[in-house]
Design a protein that fits this description.
β1 and β2 form a beta hairpin. The protein has helices at residues 10-17, 20-27, 29-42, 48-58, 75-81, 87-101, 106-122, 126-133, 136-140, 145-159, 164-183, 187-202, 207-223, 226-240, 246-259, 265-280, 285-293, 295-299, 304-318, 324-333, 338-358, 363-371, 373-380, 382-396, 402-410, 412-419, 421-427, 429-434, 441-458, 460-472, 480-493, 499-511, 519-532, 538-553, 558-588, and strands spanning 590-591, 594-595. Strands 1-2 form a two-stranded antiparallel ribbon. It is flat. By secondary structure, the protein is mainly alpha-helical. α8 packs parallel to α11 (164-183) and α21 (338-358) packs across α23 (373-380). The N and C termini lie far apart (79 Å).
Amino acid sequence: LIDELKHEDIQLRLNSIRRLSTIAVALGPERTRNELIPFLNESIDDEDEVLVALAEELGGFVEYVGGLEYAPVLLGPLETLATVEETLVRDKSVEALNKVSRQVPVAHLLEHLVPLVLRLQANDWFTSRISACGLFAAAYGRLPAESKAEIRASFTQLCHDDTPMVRRAAASNLGSFAAAMHAAGDEELLKTELLPLFAALSADEQDSVRLLAVENCVGVGQLLSVSANQAVVLPIVRSVSQDRSWRVRYVVAEHLCELVPSLSPDLTRHEMAPTFVRLLQDPEAEVRTAAAVKLAAFSRMLAPELVVSQILPAVAELCSDGSQHVRASLASDIMGLAPLVGKGATIETLLPLFLQLLKDEFPEVRLNLIGALPAVNALLGVELLATALLPAIEELAEDRQWRVRLAVVDCMPPLAAQLGVAFFEEKLCAMCVRWLQDCVYTIRESAIANVRKLTELFGLEWAAAHLIPKVMATRQSSNYLFRLTALSTVSSLATVVGSDVLYGSLLPAVLGMVSDAVPNVRFNVAKTLQMLVPLLEPGLVASQVKPKLLELSEDHDKDVQYFAQRALHVAADGLTAVKRYVDLDELLLTIDGVPIAN
């Protein structure tokens, strides 16, 4: 392994790096500190993949160098790794440095880690300064006041760095540093020193810096009181929600719901609601899409009358949006508004919008809305569901996009439960049977599961009278794929129907297909019979099933023969087991051939 550390083959070097702990155990702590670590420090000029693995390994290497007392020897190679150009290597080295810093005593922090952070912060090359941004939070709470002041001053310099990438890294880590200061009891310093940096970064000339500052609004807002949020966070949110860069507004739309709990109800009503409406009406489709996804989540934080007066008019505009992606996002979330605004507003305002989206030309819009239908069905009631939504659902059941048809199939059981057995039988039963003959296999498969769920939902008596006969009629189809579907439906239903239906309908249907012209159907008959054997009485197996399997075992098609012979083995094993049980019962009922009285 040691030789492989120097090997020309990168894969061998990589394998050896990943087993550094094995090498360290073999060398012992002293030789690891004196020989292995210096060697690794000199070998930093390697492929990025090797350096990433090295940083990952060194983060957990404290025990191999002799424990916490000697942990600082790891800081040398990790500091070197923190200065390389590859971002992933730097990120892994920062993770490892933070991991080590959380373990070592305060004395080591003061002697080794704080100087390391200050060196990285003062380095001329920007990659070092980027790495420094991620090292402040982990050790801050354990440092004395003087060192904390140094750390804060260093972070302040990075926030005002000339290089945008450094300011971006500072903005990215500002939230974690603020949390560390708050946990350390430095709330006043947080307000006086860090919040001005937060405000400056949120107004940075680079949009990549501003959008990261917006992401930190949530973390900072959770640390401050409502009054402090009103004074500091709210003006920033107000500003960035109207930022000239759509990317910044996009991030605002993504995180606005997380900001609301940090503000008072009054501010939510007068500030956040108009801000959200403005994002729903943003010129950029990407921003409108992000806001539409948060529609129900944001509306839950508002009073119902506010949703009706401010949010619903904007939603009505989005239903006719020029971007199909906006409409698709809206369709996935609009159903969540119905329970919030109540039945009256749902019928008056939302229902026409639902119907409009159900007829959208873009299939994903229809698909997203169908997936959310069960949420609103209970609110609308059977009458309205039947008169308003059902015609649209029937139309979508024949949609040219198979994924839309599949979504309708999947929503049928909960819809049937709400409509009731009589209404379902009249309007939708035939539709469920038609899906068994769809041209797409996935829909036929889902339709089979549907038949089983409906049988369980409405009861065996109803299914035997109204559903199963129609399903079994599909075995007469001229298309062999639909005949295969009939066999799969038998397999699905066999375990949930009683013996009357099994013996009277399902088994005769399968046995009647033994002589099918298509070999695929015949060997699936054999597979279905094999599945049914354990559910049938032995006498029935011997008299009806076994002769048909023997017929199939002599089929001219080898696949049919194979599956028929497998089914015959199962049938023979079942009959043998039954015979053994019968013989044992007879034995237990006699002693020396004399019957025992009951």
